[in-house]
Amino acid sequence: MKKVVLAYSGGLDTSIIIPWLKENYGYEVIAMAADLGQGEELEPLHEKAIKSGANKLYIEDVKEEFVTDYIYPTLKAGAIYEGKYLLGTSMARPLIGKKLVEIAEKEGAEAIAHGATGKGNDQVRFELAVKALKPELKIIAPWREWDIRSRDDAIDYAEARGIPVPVTKSRPYSMDRNLWHLSHEGGQLEYPGQEPPDDVLLLTVPPEKTPDAPTYVEIYFEQGVPKKVNGQDLAPVELVMQLNELGGANGIGVVDMVENRLVGMKSRGVYETPGGTILYQAHRELELLTMDRITLHYKEIVASRYAELVYDGVWFSPLREALDAFVNVTQRTVTGTVRMKLYKGNCTPAGTTSPYSLYSEELATFGRDEVYTQADAAGFINLFGLPLKVQALMERQAGLRK
Length: 402
Known about the structure:
single chain, five-stranded parallel beta sheet, alpha/beta, Argininosuccinate synthetase, chain A, domain 2
């Protein structure tokens, strides 16, 4: 019997895909779940996958690879999609695609399948990873083929086959959880004119319920990579988990946004990224202290392009590798400690130190100094403003201005 490897989460879509693949393709279904830090969600997967009709389930522990090879490069790049989204789902999909290819090679499968819808970004991310790594694999996307047209239809399909799923018609949110974030879409969130319901947040305490006293946290970075929290050396996974706890308890990292999907439509999502938000803001503060002006400003352009590249699923590309090379050069001096103040949903800097600091008290002081000759500024301004002066004189001579 021919085999297909399914990206399996145990959620509604991937649960019903197992019997659908068997009924419509006659495949032996090999399910693959990537352990990206979902926690308790993974415990019942073996039983659920087999009961749903899978012949085998692989659970691949990729948490550390996820942090070191996907999260940290994106963090160092400063990549944030449309100024708000910290790319939690986007970064995970190429890694899942990579593992699908590895399992397909191990099992001798001819195809991979996924549960991404034809309206979403994930179909692109999964399939671009497969095309980049093993283009001869066949790709099956049931949402582009079957007659199911809504989540209610999918729930009915599951109930008819006795397949337990974690989604009900009363709480129909589509969620994606990993070590970095938890995303929420669907249900009442499809109406951007309404505030998210109270039951949406699962990782983050609402600001009005957080402690009345601020929490301070110190993060030490080495060449742009976080290494310590409050002076304690931590492994990558442990570091992110600890910051998630601190951030979540203080209401940090909730983003409610209407974003532009790659496929052309706008969608509304709520993202919880407590630890990631702390890391991004702390990393930015350290760059402001240690990076020269022209490099910092050019890196902001790179960050925007890097974010689009990750969002669009073009992870396994020469461009991403080239941008990483640029970013890594910029991070050579991004070493030091950043103190952040966490208070009722706000994450603000409370002091930054670095052996590579470019801040000079002698130059910046408003008091008396002996190192900066203020009269020099006149010549600089004359030369810097010369094009504007020439433009104004020409316009006056041409009668374009009085």
